[in-house]
Amino acid sequence: MKRILLTGAAGYIASHTWIALREAGFAVLGVDNFANSSPRVLDRLAELLGEAPRFAQLDVCDSAALSALLQREPVDAVVHFAAYKAVGESTQQPLAYYRNNLLGLISTCEAMRAAGCSRIVFSSSATVYGAPETLPIREDSPTSSTNPYGATKLIGEQILRDLGQADAGWQTACLRYFNPVGAHASGRIGEDPRGVPNNLMPYVAQVAVGRRERLQVFGNDYDTPDGTGVRDYIHVVDLAEGHVAALRRLLAEPGSFTVNLGTGRGYSVLELVRAYAEASGREIPYEIVARRPGDVAACYADPSAAAALLGWRARHDLARMCADSWRWQQQNPQGFAP
Ligand SMILES: NC(=O)c1ccc[n+]([C@@H]2O[C@H](COP(=O)([O-])OP(=O)(O)OC[C@H]3O[C@@H](n4cnc5c(N)ncnc54)[C@H](O)[C@@H]3O)[C@@H](O)[C@H]2O)c1
Fold first, then answer.
1. Residue in 149, 177, 267, 300 annotated catalytic
2. Pairing of strands 27-32, 3-7
């Protein structure tokens, strides 16, 4: 049985990946410092997995602690999720973002090298495409960063490329996620943003459940069919399966790769609002306000590289994403809070 370390293991995407990996027969070890997650996630995982999750609380920037853990518990590959992820916050706290996201990655790679592990999957993001010039976005599209968070993803990818150049023994997979949404079908785990949600679907979910009065739609004068921004929403369970496929490939064959993980289909803000209203049976009041600086009109993936290389494609549609998000939100109106 192959052994996988998940950093940022209690987070939104990692917790769903944990389940997908166990279902696929991998052994999983998780680490997290709960900077943006709750220890209660581990109780829910125990319930869903029918076993106690193997977990250590630590900060991945603490290379010595991570190194000691990997010496004690060797792994075959690492999925590095641990990072701060709020774009707006990154513009206000650039040093915290560069420190945590870049030092965390470097420290993880150092601990891996000391333990003789050289396969890593990195959580990258569609944000590395900046303002895309052509759609759908292919992996060879130009990249740029418009904020410190995006810069940490671009530099993170570069660090991994350089590592592979310096030592062909390293195998790296950069997965560029589009817009992860939805939740596990059980309704027991899901996205639990702290404070005001930065992303659309969690905000809509909180309006639907009555935690927030109305949604603000940032601009309806974009060059899109209904004037609102278009994004490639991908079910978090599909995304989790993408990690399983990437790990299988890394473990089976030499080489490194960078792929988009998206559905290839864009939906507008208003389409998402309508789909959520239907899934929840609740009205979603909204108002149109000014565009938000830095937002692009449309962004969706060409997912064909992941299909060709990994045999992976997203399976869940928008109705399912909304239904699963709503089940989680309705059953856990305050997220993981007691
Ligand atoms: N959710 C998205 O929209 C999205 C899109 C593209 C890329 N990503 C990337 O995917 C990854 C996971 O995102 P998510 O949405 O699950 O976020 P999340 O905040 O739910 O999960 C990240 C986890 O990492 C942990 N963490 C942060 N710094 C740490 C450190 N120094 N040591 C140990 N643990 C640490 C947090 O406590 C959290 O549990 C991140 O790298 C993020 O940048 C997310």
1. 149
2. parallel
